[in-house]
Write the structure tokens for this entry.
Amino acid sequence: MRKNKKLLTLLSMMLVLVLVAVGCGTSTETPDTGDATGEVKDTLIVGQGADVVSLDPHATNDQPSSRVSKQIYNTLVNQNEAMELEPGLAESWEKIDDLTWEFKLRQGVKFHNGEDFTANDVKFTLLRALESAKIGHIVGAINPEGIEVVDNHTIKIATNEPFAPLLAHLAHTAAGMLNEKAVTEGGENYAQNPVGTGPFKFQEWKTGESVTLTRNDDYFADKAKVKTVVFRNITENTARVIELETGGIDIAYDIPPTEVSRVEEDQNLVLLRDESLSTAYIGFNAGKEPYNDVRVRQAINYAIDTDSIVEAVYQGVGKAAKGPLGTNVFGAHTDLEQYGYNLEKAKELMKEAGYENGFKATIMTNENQQRMDIAEIVQNQLRDINIETEVQVVEWGTYLDETAAGKHDMFILGWTTVTGDADYGLYALFHSSQFGDAGNRTFWSNDKVDELLDAARVEADPAKRAEYYSEAQEIIREEAPWVFTYNGENLAGTRKNVKGFKQHPAGHHKLVSVYFE
Amino acid sequence: MHKYILRRLLMLVPVMLGVTLIVFTMMHFTPGDPAKIMLGESAPEAEVIKLREELGLDDPFLVQFGRYVFNAVQGDIGRSYTTNRPVAIEIMERFPSTLKLAALGVLVSVSLGIPTGIISATRQYSLFDNIAMVAALLGVSMPNFWQGLMLILFFSVQLKWFPSSGFSTPSQMVLPALTLGTSSAAIITRMTRSSMLEVIRQDYIRTARAKGQAESIVINKHALNNALIPIITVIGLQFGYLLGGAVLTESIFSIPGVGRLMVESIKARNFPVVQGGVLFIAITFSFVNLLVDILYAFVDPRIKSQYK
């Protein structure tokens, strides 16, 4: 029996190992699902596709983190789901001169650590944000010397140059207000113990797995309807949809186009589709022959059937773009005429430009499946106007370097107008001062467009700004430095009993008013 | 025995250095500027330059490597580019999930594989044996991700017995453990069967039977003990391999393990985490190997006498 004992010991050792392994870190708390007892649930579980990187808004600019930070922090100015600006932590604001704005702050607001929210926190936050390599550019227009605390609840903020879209930039989640004491005390670990003024307080972060928030019962505005929000990290798209179907989560962000019908057909689920702020485009290198000829650029716009790209590549989610901006961006010209597929016109323009027999071209893209698919479709369609294209797929870093250096013919890229203001969506991409790395990788410029973009940046009157942008977009559409390809959509699915959920075009949706029926 | 263990531990040093050098070189020459990837397409050039300086990415290769080794010896294997937290902490936070998954997977595979292998060997070419061998072939050939999805479809979507993702409650662990366990079980079954078959035909087994020993004792005591060595080797290898993170299973079931951390880090050119991760996996693999070698001595006294 001696040897059998050994086998037994061996097996029991393994069992112990398993038990120890399973025992370590196992949480015994299971979220209150309420279903079984018929009570109304008060824990909302949200599934998203990647883990949070940091809950320090100055340390990262990724979507999953912003989506959580949005619940913890407030900004001075709010941008609602209709992209309208409304008071946030600032009750009111006033433009004092070309450079300076004065903000009156809301009184009686407390941070989650019990500290009062004051103008000193605003100054601290903005100065800290300006130092950030990750999000510094979002508040980059602000002059650090020009932030002046007038009293506890009044602050003046000056920009380096006149900058009309300042309010939209202050509404970005990266400009959420931090508490000086909490940041200093938190030190290196602040990102794991964030403190804000928002409707939810941070509770727990299981790395790679989930972030849990609880309701802030001292919230200054309408309090959250659910008690707890859990953001679960479910990277596989299919797995996330299955979790929604089986009731493991209540809301699933970023439903992939392939799963749309599955969510739509399920009677227990609701699919939400709203236009996002993202756009995809095919850019020309207008600094190079033959792409410096507007007729060639227009011909290619006519020769590419963007509607079929939306169908084939994006499975009908989103729509073909008419111009450089999505329609929900402030200043977007919504009545631009879409180029549309017109082979005859394309051939005519090619002939006029002297390229009846076509030419050879390369389309550059990075290893992004959708962009590679677009490249292939474009390659096929351009054959009809005798353009022989070669698709070049390069690694992301290289891609950015090469296109910034102007080594490309055509390239496929996207842009998200995160502030929802036309300035962000046009200036970097079409102004002549922004050639290369700064954003204008087409090297196309137009004096009138420069003038309009500069004027709109300075102009305080929103109506006038919109006019300037409209005119600029008409010129851009006509001059066609891009093939205007695609405007994206945000897709989310919820369980049927989830009410009060609205998507924000920027993708970071508020959860304060979500409740269960 | 102690000397042997000490010698084996010392041998880890050159292994670690070699692994570090290889990974460091590979990551260094992978195209793509981490600073650009971290900041995204809308970041201004000046900020990219600032970040490159902060991360020391402009230094020569040997300077960077030297700095890394120097710090690593003192226990600092760097900070994650994305989260700016110590790599060691990031890995250790993920390791419990990977350890749980690997341990459960091995438990499933051992408790399925060894009994099936023994029965198959003792009843060679019987109906049971044939079915077991076909099942084992299926188990080895089925890709993990497909099997995981099928299990989810059947047990989560249809029967609603188990949740389809997550890894904090026992019910969430069932499907991932099954997914991982069944493919290793197949390998263990085949190994147990062939190892047992070899032993069963030896003279001393015939002798044991001839002296009237009960069949169960002949099999469990005389045969199995001597057949165990190759089986333990396979189990050890499987365990060591699983400890490196079962990437596909972790992805399908949204398990926050080391494997997924590595894949995400490679995609993000998060060099410090990839280097730290590979180093960590190399260490755990070496340890599991050492453990298996010690186990040999425990199972077979003849081997123990060789460990000097």
Notes: Residues 87-122 of chain B form the longest helix (36 residues). The radius of gyration of chain B is 24 Å.
